Amino acid sequence: MRRGILLIISGPSGVGKGTVSKALLEGSGGNMVFSVSATTRDPRPGEMHGREYFFVTKEEFDRMIDDGEFLEYMHVFGRNYYGTPKKYVMDQLEMGHDVLLDIDVNGAMKVKENCPEAIALMLAPPTMKELRRRLETRGTEEQPVIERRLAEAKSELSRMKEYDFVVVNDDLDAAIEQCRNIVECCKHTPDYCVDFVNTLIDEDF
Ligand code: ADP
Ligand code: 5GP
Fold first, then answer.
1. Which residues line ligand 1 (CB under 6 A)?
2. Do the domain assignments include residue 18?
3. Helical (H) or strand (E) element with 166
4. Looking at the domain assignment, is residue 42 inside a domain?
5. Is 111 inside a domain boundary?
6. What 8-state DSSP symbol labels residue 3?
7. Which pTM value belongs to this model?
8. Number of folded domains in the chain?
């Protein structure tokens, strides 16, 4: 069985990571799973515990750190903690499922340190005005939080070169298609195919 692809999607808040991720997962026929992070932030309307996030208290989050349950964790936007559960991600990859992480830039690079085979994809907005429009239209944050997230956006984008791929999320369907193509291409690299080819070499004619 081939291991799955570990796909990290990051980019500024409001760029469309959640929207693109949802489409990739729905279009994968169950072959791609989402790594549900733990967070100490409050759920947004419509968010469900165990679906978008595991919503935990700071005390519970600290316990998870102490017990080594995170592949990486991060204090994001000066307030909340977010962390990627290690066991779930590793088990799913081992089962041959692709795993999608929607995490911030620092978290992405930590994951790449621990799992160099991970594919890091930066989602960029078509314009900064459009980024503001999307954040304001989503309407899930108060204005000061939106301003803080916009202030972060340029420094996040400036780390683009640390990524393997960049997709501009202008037309949504085009961006989804480009992300799908990237995942498909990554399944044809020698690194990804090496175990399979080695079994061929060991086979009798
Ligand atoms: P993120 O997860 O990066 O914070 P979301 O996926 O929540 O961003 O998207 C932010 C807002 O932008 C949502 O209201 C979403 O419907 C909208 N959106 C996402 N992609 C596009 C796009 N390509 N064109 C227009 N609006 C978009
Ligand atoms: P939001 O609060 O909008 O859901 O997410 C805020 C930021 O936290 C986004 O950039 C998102 O990608 C990031 N994030 C979500 N989960 C994790 C995680 O487990 N680890 C890290 N490092 N960042 C995360």
1. 13-19, 134, 137-138, 169, 172, 175
2. yes
3. strand 165-168
4. no
5. yes
6. P
7. 0.92
8. 1
Copy the structure tokens of residue 53. 């996030």
Is 82 inside any structural domain?
no
* Range(s) of the domain holding residue 30: 6-35+97-202
Q: Whose CA is nearest to atom 22 of ligand 2?
A: 107
User: Ligand 1 pocket check: which of 138, 145, 177 to mutate, most ligand atoms within 8 Å of Cβ?
Assistant: 138
Residue range 114-123, pLDDT digits in tens: 999 999 999 9
Give the pair of three-digit tokens for residue 124: 């960029």
Q: For 112-163, what is each residue's pLDDT tens digit?
A: 999 999 999 999 999 999 999 999 999 888 999 999 999 999 999 999 999 9
Give, using CA atoms, the residue closest to atom 2 of ligand 2.
Answer: 41
pLDDT tens for 71-125 read: 999 986 667 999 999 999 999 999 999 999 999 999 999 999 999 999 999 999 9
Fill in the DSSP letter of residue 160: G
Q: What is the DSSP letter of 165?
A: E
Per the listing, tokens 């640390």 go with 162
Instruction: Give the CATH number for residue 172.
Output: 3.40.50.300
Q: Tell me which ligand sits closest to the C-alpha of residue 126.
A: 1
